[in-house]
């Protein structure tokens, strides 16, 4: 049984059809990467899965099934059950999603207390524990910091710690490493892989970095102008790309062993 | 590897300190010596905050070093002032990372491209249209883009306009500060090809700042690796990846995700983050993240030394590392 099944989905913003006929099926513990250029609709797809389409976006055709139940017409209460507990999302810059005038601890405690009926002190302790599990030493200090006091890599770890608090079955990551340095990117990617090993979390990772996609994913979806150009298992797609567009994307990735222009 | 007569910029002993809170000092660049040659590209790699942009800003005269001199065709440009400085600026141009923020949103592309020429009275206002079209063609954009505004274009197209603006004055040097980082890989490839085509045609020296060592290797002739304000390695780009000597360079290379890599292998990366430049430890700046750190590294700061012609490394043990224990 697939955990998530996206069936022939069309998504429009107003009258503009942005994503056409998107299909995606994800099993337990599987990682799927969506790659494509900016504006190809990759973020729109994962936002639709979480019911977070911005600016009046709507699913106009098809269905999205999570554990065999459609998520398209859920009520607010039903979404609250799902979001953050069973499905969570990690954004490109986790610092930007947090209120700059509140400390990490305040946001984290609020988040935990939305989902669980526990005291502030217990929620704080739980937050610290999660931060330390995500290799952020000195969790107490971090809880007391404001987002701007942390580096990009630390902020991203805070985002992951929040997203993983309830060990969701499905983790959606929107360009989780694009704003980071290469060394930090490698650390964060490694952390994602450990999550999968440890908790068997399924993930959809949106990225424009084909190298990261290739390393993380079991299957890769290539999108262009709102349509799926090609999808398939990693090995097949990398070695025997069927479409010209996929080959072009693969060729454009700079590589340490590859050709030099000069 | 480079011809001395092609030497165009010679930066000697550049140090820049910024005053910081609590009476401390932040050393953004520490005794940096780098050269740019006509028709060649110098790639400068390092993590954010290592001082690579600070250094390049001196070359464009946007800031002045605390110590050291920058010789442009033999003349120190850090001492220039007033009209002399203004006239000098046309020889060295810059392309910025984010083409959205580096343009005035209220100016048309035609005016953006021609502004430098008008500033230096190289053309008359009536010639603007023809000139803009000529340069748009040179960067492979349709000529009627002259009438557009920056927001009517995609990121890649805007970056092409930024390149057009940088070359209108026929500069001898162009500094590219992460010029392709905001772009998609496929667009990045096209922009790189354009830059290199123009470099060949006009024999421009390029200073290329980037944090992706894979990309730098494919475009640069020479690579300088920077860490916490220090150059830790300087080498010909063709020697990468085999001959990288400094543990930091090797760590950067290991962090690159390559579509041809072995996916079953765990990705190795150095732990932790760059320490704050406010309290750089004595000794080697890389000591607390280095797998091979020894007693000597904690007390003596390694200097750049040549391990073979054209390749310098600042590490006490760079030649033994292969056989050393972690």
Could you characterize what this model shows?
- The complex is a heterodimer of chains A (about 260) and B (about 325).
- Chain A has a single domain (about 5-250), classed as P-loop containing nucleotide triphosphate hydrolases (Rossmann fold, 3-Layer(aba) Sandwich).
- Chain A has helices at about 40-50, 75-80, 105-115, 120-135, 140-145, 150-165, 180-200, 210-215, 235-240, 245-250; strands at about 5-15, 15-25, 30-35, 55-65, 70, 85-90, 170-175, 200-205, 220-225, 225-235.
- In chain A, strand 1 (about 5-15) and strand 2 (about 15-25) form a beta hairpin.
- By secondary structure, chain A is an alpha/beta fold.
- Chain A has a 6-stranded mixed sheet, sandwiched between helices.
- Chain B has about 325 residues and is α/β, with parallel strands linked by helices.
- Chain B has one domain: Rossmann fold (3-Layer(aba) Sandwich).
- Chain B is about 25% helix and about 25% strand.
- Chain B contains 9 helices and 12 strands.
- In chain B, the strands form 2 sheets. Chain B has an 8-stranded mixed sheet, sandwiched between helices. In chain B, strands 2-1-4-5 form a 4-stranded antiparallel sheet, covered by helices on one side.
- In chain B, a hairpin with a 2-residue loop joins strand 11 and strand 12.
- Chain B starts with 6 loop residues before the first strand and ends in a 13-residue tail after the last strand.
- The model of chain B has no long low-confidence stretch (mean pLDDT about 90).
- Classes of the chains: A alpha/beta (about 260), B alpha/beta (about 325).
Tell me the CATH superfamily of chain A. P-loop containing nucleotide triphosphate hydrolases
| End-to-end C-alpha gap of chain A | 51 Å
At the fold tier of CATH, the topology name of chain A is Rossmann fold
End-to-end separation of chain B in angstroms reads 34 Å
Named CATH topology of chain B: Rossmann fold
Strand order in the largest sheet of chain B: 6-7-8-3-9-10-12-11
**What overall geometry of chain B do the principal axes of the alpha carbons give?**
globular
CATH architecture of chain A: 3-Layer(aba) Sandwich
Proportion of beta-strand residues of chain B: 15-25%
**Order of the strands making up the biggest sheet of chain A:** 6-7-8-3-9-10
Give the C-level CATH assignment of chain A: Alpha Beta
Helix content of chain B: 25-40%
Taking Cα atoms only, what radius of gyration of chain B do you get, to the nearest Å? 21 Å
Uncertain spans of chain B: none
Name of the CATH architecture of chain B: 3-Layer(aba) Sandwich
Low-confidence stretches of chain A: none
Largest interface: A-B, 40 and 46 residues
**In terms of structural class, how would the helical and strand content of chain A be classed?**
alpha/beta
Helix content of chain A: 25-40%
Mean pLDDT of chain B: 90
């Amino acid at each position: 049984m697939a955990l998530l099944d996206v069936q022939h989905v069309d998504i429009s913003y107003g009258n503009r059809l942005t994503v056409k006929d998107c299909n995606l099926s994800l099993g337990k513990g599987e990682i799927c990467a969506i790659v494509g250029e900016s504006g190809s609709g990759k973020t729109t797809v994962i936002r639709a899965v979480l019911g977070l389409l911005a600016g009046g976006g709507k699913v106009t055709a098809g269905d999205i099934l999570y554990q065999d139940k459609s998520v398209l017409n859920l009520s607010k209460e039903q979404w609250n059950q799902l979001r953050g507990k069973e499905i969570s999302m990690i954004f490109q810059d986790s610092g930007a999603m947090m209120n700059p005038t509140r400390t990490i601890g305040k946001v984290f405690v609020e988040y935990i207390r939305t989902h669980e009926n526990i005291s502030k002190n217990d929620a704080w302790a739980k937050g610290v524990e999660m931060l330390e599990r995500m290799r952020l030493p000195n969790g107490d200090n971090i809880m007391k910091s404001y987002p701007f006091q942390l580096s990009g890599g630390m902020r991203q770890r805070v985002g992951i710690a929040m997203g993983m608090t309830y060990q969701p079955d499905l983790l959606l990551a929107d360009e989780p490493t694009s704003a980071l340095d290469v060394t930090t990117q490698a650390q964060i990617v490694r952390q994602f892989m450990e999550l999968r090993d440890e908790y068997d979390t399924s993930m959809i990772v949106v990225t424009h970095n084909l190298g990261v996609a290739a390393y993380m994913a079991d299957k890769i979806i290539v999108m262009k102008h709102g349509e799926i150009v090609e999808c398939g298992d990693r090995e097949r797609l990398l070695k025997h790309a069927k479409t010209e567009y996929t080959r072009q994307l693969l060729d454009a990735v700079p590589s340490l062993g590859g050709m030099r222009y000069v | 590897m480079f011809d001395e007569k092609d030497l165009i910029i010679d930066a000697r002993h550049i140090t820049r300190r910024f005053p910081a809170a609590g009476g401390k000092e932040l050393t953004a660049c520490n005794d940096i010596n780098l050269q740019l040659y006509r028709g060649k590209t110098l790639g400068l790699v390092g993590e954010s905050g290592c001082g690579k942009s600070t250094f390049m800003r001196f070359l464009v005269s946007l800031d002045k070093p605390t110590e050291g001199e920058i010789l442009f065709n033999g003349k120190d440009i850090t001492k220039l002032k007033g009209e002399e400085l203004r006239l000098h600026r046309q020889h060295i141009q810059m392309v910025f990372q984010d083409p959205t923020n580096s343009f005035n949103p209220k100016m048309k592309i035609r005016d953006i491209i021609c502004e430098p020429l008008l500033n230096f009275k190289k053309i008359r206002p009536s010639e603007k249209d023809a000139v803009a079209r000529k340069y748009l063609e040179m960067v492979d954009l349709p000529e009627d883009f002259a009438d557009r505004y920056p927001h009517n274009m995609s990121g890649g197209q805007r970056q092409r306009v930024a390149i057009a603006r940088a070359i209108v004055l026929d500069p001898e040097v162009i500094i590219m500060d992460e010029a392709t980082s905001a772009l998609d890989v496929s667009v990045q490839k096209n922009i790189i090809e354009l830059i290199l085509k123009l470099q060949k045609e006009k024999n421009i020296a390029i200073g290329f700042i980037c944090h992706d060592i894979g990309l730098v290797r494919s475009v640069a002739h020479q690579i300088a690796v920077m860490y916490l304000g220090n150059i830790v390695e300087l080498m010909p780009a063709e020697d990468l990846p085999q001959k990288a000597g400094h543990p930091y360079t090797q760590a950067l290379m290991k962090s690159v995700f390559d579509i041809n890599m072995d996916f079953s292998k765990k990705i190795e990366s150095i732990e932790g983050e760059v320490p704050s430049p406010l309290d750089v430890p004595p000794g080697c700046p890389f000591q607390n993240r280095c797998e091979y750190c020894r007693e000597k590294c904690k007390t003596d700061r390694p200097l750049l030394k040549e391990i073979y012609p054209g390749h310098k490394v600042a590490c006490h043990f760079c030649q033994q590392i292969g056989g050393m224990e972690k």
